[in-house]
Design a protein that fits this description.
The protein is mainly α. It has one domain. It is built from four helices and no strands.
Amino acid sequence: MEKEREVDAVTTPTATEAEAIGRGWYAYRRVVRAGWPAGKGKDIGAALESLCESLETYRDLLSDVTHPASVYPELEYEDDAYDKALSMTAQDAADWAAELDRLVPEDAEGERAA
C-alpha cells in the first residue's frame, strides 16, 4: 500500500499582486526622489512609512518569514491564508501607492525637501 505524500503548497504572487507590488516600489522610489509639496511632509512621510511596511510584509509573507495570522489574525484558520494574506497586503501597498500619487503628483521634480 503506497502512502500518500503530503506536498507543501507553493505560494506565488499573482500577476495582479506582482503589478501592485511593482507599482508600490515605483511610487516609493519616485516619492523619495521628488520634491515634496510644502506643508505635506508629515502626511507624505506617514504614507511612505506605511507603504514600506506593506512592501516588507509582502516580502516576508512570500518568503515564509511571517505567518499570515501574525499580520491578519482573522486568517488563522483559513486553508488559503497565505494567498489571502498576499492579496490583502498587495492591495494595501497599492492603496498606499495611490495615496502617495495623490500627495506627490507625478510632475513633482527635484530633491526632497526637508
